Structure formats: C-alpha cells, structure tokens
Amino acid sequence: MSLRPSSVLPAAGFRTLFCVHGSAVSGKSWNALAAPLRDRVRVLAPDRLGQAAGERWPADRASSFDAEAEHLAATLAAAPGPVHLFGHSYGGAVAMQMALRWPERVARLTLYEPTRFALLFRPGHAPGEAAREILAIGHGTQQRAAAGQEAEAAQLFVDYWSGAGTWAAMDAGRQQRLAVQMPKVGAEFLAAFADPLPLDAWRALAMPVLLLGGETSPAPVRAINALLASVLPRSASVTLPGIGHMGPMTHADDVREWLPEAATIDLPMPMATKEAA
User: Fold this and answer.
1) How far is Cα 31 from Cα 27, in angstroms, rounded to an integer?
2) Domain architecture of the chain: domains with CATH
3) What's this model's pTM, rounded to 2 decimal places?
C-alpha cells in the first residue's frame, strides 16, 4: 500500500515557501531541499536571530521564541500572500510562534521535530526519561559554552543530534564554524526550557499542520511530535524510516517529497499517519 505525500493534508493557495532553519546553521542549510522547488514557488530562507554570516552571539545574552519571531516578522509580512511555513528543529519551534502570532500570514505549517522542550515538563506530570535526557544535553551544552569550552559544547551537541562520532569525522574548519555557534545554541536551549506556553495553547492553530519526524531521531523530539499531534486540530503525522533529526539536510530529497510544492510520487506507507480533521 502506498500514500501520495502531497495528499496527506490539503493544499492551500500559497505561493511562498518560508523556511526557518535549526540551530548552529544559517538559511543556506535549506539549499539542498529548496533548490528544486524554486521554479514552482518563491522560497524564502532568512537567517535566524544572531546566525547571519560573521555574527557572534554574546555568551551572556538571552533569547526567546518571541524575539526570534520578531526578527523574522518583516520578512513574513512582505511575503506575497499567506505562506507555507516550514521549520526544522529550533526553527520549527520558532515557526510555531510565528503561526500563533500571525495566523493570517500562514496558510500551512510543516514542522520537522520542533524543539518545544518545555512540553516535556508539563505541570502535574513527572518528567520522563526523554525529558531528563534533553535536560542533560541542553544544560551540558549551555554550561560548556558559558565556560568558554565551545568545542566541547559543540561535540556534545553534534553527536547527540547526528550520532556518535559525527564531530570527530568533521574537518577542522567545520568544527570551528560550529563551535562559535555554541553560545547561541546554549541560549536557545534555555529559551526552550523556559517556554511558558502550555500544550493546550497549540489548539489555536487552525491551519493544516504536517508533523514530520525521523525514525532514528532522539526520543525527546519524537515525544514532542506525539504531544502536538494530540492537540493540533488539523494535523497529520509522518515518520520517515531510516532518517534522523537532521533529515532536512541529510535526506533532503526524502523530506521534500512530503511538501505539496514537490511532484506527487508514491512512497512507502509511513509508520504513523493521522489524516487531517
């Protein structure tokens, strides 16, 4: 049995794909996924707060989802018509904030494992193993970065999300570029842990939402996808076999096929799919 990816959720009348990138990278990280779509829709992939070329985040500077959303607000407002908003990882969490604040600008929302970590620490629920796991990774990364141990912070961060040994396999230049991003990554972890919005707040998102995730991704982001699927009024959930958290970059072709902008082709039935309400 097969499922046509572009039929998982109904298409809407959008002409712009607005991509919000994850941590420690820039808007260029979307190039492999977005390039084949540029002849069909306008693709916007701006740099998030503090992540443009040459920027360095101060070690003592805080961040927040609202600050990230405000940073992208002008680009969103200038886009022609309501957009298809697509966010990956921390960029997915930011995309959620944008959709909540400016729903009239978002025709459709696609989220690849948004890092709304505070959802794992809900009042009245004892933190589970996934919550404790991400708390250790987040605080470990932030504390190393704050202590000036940026390479050590980057190794912890990279190997957690991409697999043990990924950091050691990188060339020195790539390691250095990632290491200098760790103060911002630490601020992002703290912002995600401090997020005050409860799970029920996301019932307000009325647009179609596609929740994408990888079969081999860490447990915390898989748990967040499941929580969001339980409250979003118009959502579908898809788990991509053999793919991890960095799927939009490591498996751009596979992820792209689930976007309505892509050509409709048959793929194997995903592990879990909920048809839109």
Assistant:
1) 8
2) 2-121+198-268 (3.40.50.1820)
3) 0.91
